[in-house]
Amino acid sequence: MATGAMYPGTFDPLTRGHEEIVQRAAGVFGRVVVAVASGSSKQPLFDLEKRIDLISSALADLKNIEVVSYDGLTVDFARDNGLGVIVRGLRAASDFEYEFQLAMMNRHLEAGVETVFLTPTEEFMFVSSSLVREIARMGGDVSGFVHPVVNQALREHFDN
Fold first, then answer.
1. Which residues are catalytic, by number?
2. For residue 153, which of 129, 136, 138, 131 has the smallest C-alpha distance?
């Protein structure tokens, strides 16, 4: 049986909602790998190395997590790294249909990997990376939605 869990995503940027999901997963699983997708079809604001650095800094106080990049199928990464669980965050009912389809496809591809859904607190339910990027792009204050190191990186990015 595989041990540990992975929390996959692009994390562009990492939000307080992501942080909360990682903290809660770290309390449930002995090992949590925050797996940053490198081959995403999205056009990221921050390059892969910067995202990994920001996530590592923001989550430095959690001792049972690792932050790594991955490419390819999520279930392949999970299986190849002995991770029996994929953690996914659900913010709203609108996320459920897509996430359910993804979980069913992953189960079909790799029966030994389960998907666990965690929901953020109400405080962070509406926060998404795309909204944070848009607010920051327009000069708005996103400090309540992201870790200070992420906030600084956003400000530096959009000041240039």
1. 18, 42, 91, 129
2. 136
